[in-house]
Amino acid sequence: MNQTLLQLLNGLTFAALLFIVASGFTLIFGLLRIVNLAHGALYLFGGLVGYTAATATGSYVLGILAAMAVVALLGLVIDAGLLRFVRGNELRQVLLTLGIAFILNDLVLVLWGGDTYTVPIPDMLRGAARFGHIFYPKYRLFVLALGVAIFGLLWLLLNRTRLGALIRAGVDDPEMVEAMGINIRRVFLGTFMLGAALAGLGGVVGGAFLTLYPSADAEILVFSLAVVIIGGRGSLAGAAVGALLVGLLNSFGQVWFPELSYFVIFGPMALILAFRPLGLFGRAT
Amino acid sequence: MSTPLVSALPPVDRAAPTKRVLVWLCIVLAALLALPLLLPGYQISIATQILIFSILAMSIDILAGFVGRTPLGHGAIFGVSTYVVIYWTASLGGSLWVGMGLGILAATLLAAVFALLAIRTSGVYFLLLTLALGMIVWGVCLRSTGITGGENGLRGIGRPGFLVDHVHFYYAILLVTVPVTWIIWRFVHSPFGLTMRGIRESESRMRSLGYNVPLHLFLAFVASGFVAGIAGALYAVFNDFVSPSTVQLSQSVSALLMAITGGVGTLFGAFVGATAIILLENVVSVFTARWPSVLGLTFVLIMIFAPEGIVGRARILLAKRRRRS
Fold first, then answer.
1. Which residues in chain A have their CB less than 8 angstroms from residue B70's CB?
2. B26-68 tens-digit pLDDT
3. Would A159 be classed as within a structural domain?
4. A99: distance to nearest CA of chain B, Å?
5. What range defines the domain where residue A271 resides?
6. CA pair distance A81, B278, nearest whole angstrom
7. How many domains is chain A built from?
8. Is A284 contained in some domain?
9. What ipTM does the predicted assembly reach?
10. Which residues contact B183 (CB under 8 A, 6 or more apart)?
C-alpha cells in the first residue's frame, strides 16, 4: 500500500516536471506549427546554466532566472536567426531544429564535459516531509506545487490577458489576426521565447532531482513528445492530462514491467497517434 | 495539408538521350569496379560502408521522395535486421545466409507493423510517429538484456573466409548493391511508382480517381522496410557487432540526412548523399572530435540553402539551362 502511494507520488511529481517542459513545447507547436526537436537540448542547456549560476551565487532562484533568461535568448536566436529562413514548410522546420539539437548537445559536452550534475537546492527544501508514517522528499513536493502553479499562471496568461487572447487567436487563424493590424510575428517570437524559457525552467527544476547528464536531452524530449502527442498540440489542458498519463505510466511501468517500460509509454502514444492523430484535446485547423 | 520536403523536381528528359544516360551509368559502374585498384585497404572499407548506407538512404527515399512521407525511424528497421543476423549466427550458431534472410524478413515484418500505425498520418505527424516507434524498438533492445546483451551489444562470429579480405568484401557488397538499385529504380518507375508520386502530389485527387491510397502507402512502406532490411543484414556482416546505438535515433537521423543531402526523390542521390556524409565524417574526425556539431550544422545549412539536395539542385540547374538553350 505504502509502496503504491510512493509510486503514485513519484508519478505525480514527474508529471509536474513533464508538464513544465511540455507546456513550452505545446505552446510553440500549437501557435507556430513548429515541432521544436531542440526542446530537450534547451532543457539540458538551461539546467546546466542554472547549475553553474546556482553554484556560483549560492542562490537557487538566481539559477532559475539565469537559466530562463539564457534559454529565452537562445530561443530568440533560433527563431529569429534560423527558422525565419524556412517559414511555412513544416518538415524543413522540424529537421532544422533537429540539427540545432545536435549542435546544442555537442556544445554542452564542450562546455560542461560528460559529467553528471545535480543542481543544488535551498536548505528549506532539503530533507523529507512526513505524512502519518510516510516520508517523502520536500523538494519533490515543491516540484508538484510548482507544476500546478505554472499551469495556473499559463491558464491565466492565455485566458485572461490580451497577449493570451492574441496567442489563442493566432493558434486558430494567424492570417486573420494579422489582417486586424496586429504584428503576429512579434507574438510568435514572444511565444517561442516563452516556450524556450519554460524548457530552461524545467532543466533547473528537473536537474535537482533527476540530475543532468549528456543524454538527458533526448530522454526529456521523447517524454515531452509523448505528452504533446497524447494531449494534442497547443492545448494546455491536453498537456496537463498527457503529463499525468505519461508520468504515472512511467512510474508504475518501471515497477510492474521493467523490461517494457518504454513500451508502456509509447504503446499508448502510438495508438493515439494512429487512431486520433490530433491527440485527445487537439482540434483540426 | 502538409507540404512535402520538396515537390516535383523537373523530370529527367525522357525523349532525349537514354544513350547518354547509359554511357554515364557505365562510367560510374566502371569507376566503382576499379575503385579497389586505387584505394588502400582501410579506405576501401569506407567505400563498402558508403555502399551499404546508400541502400539504407534509398530505402528512405522510397518514402520521403516518392510518397512524400518523411520517416525518422528507419534506423530501427535497419538495426533490427542487424540484430537478427548477429543473434542467429553468434548466439544460435545458425548459418549466415539463413540469418540474413531472417534479418530481412524481420525488418519487413517490423516495417509492416510500423506501416499499419503510420499510414493514417502525414507530414510532421508521420515523422513523429515513426520517431516514437523507433524509440520503442531502441528501448526494447536496450532493456531485453537476455537476448540483445543490453548496452554491451552482441559480437558476431566474423565474416566467412572468402569475405575477410577488404577488396573481396567490397566486390561482394557491390554485387548486391547494383541489382538492388536496379530493382528499386524499376519499382519507382513502374505504374505503382507513378501512383506513389501521385499520392505525394495530391492524396485527395488520387483517392477521388479511385486509387486505394492506404494500400499503396502500406506497400510502399513495406517495400522500403525490405530494402532497409537488406542494408541492415549487410551491415551485420560488415560491422560484425551490434548494440543499441545501431537502432538509436541518431542512426535514423544520419540516414535521413544522407537521403536529403543527395536529394530526396532522385534515388541516385542516395549514393551522393551517403558518400558526402560518410566522407565528411571521416575527414572531420581527423581534425576534431566535434562530429555531432558538424552533423547538426550540415543539417541546418542544407535545410536553409538546399533542401532539394545535391542531385536535386543539379537537376534544377540542368533543366534551367536546357530551357534557355
1. 91, 95
2. 888 898 888 888 887 778 989 999 999 999 999 999 999 999 9
3. yes
4. 4
5. 2-275
6. 29
7. 1
8. no
9. 0.84
10. none
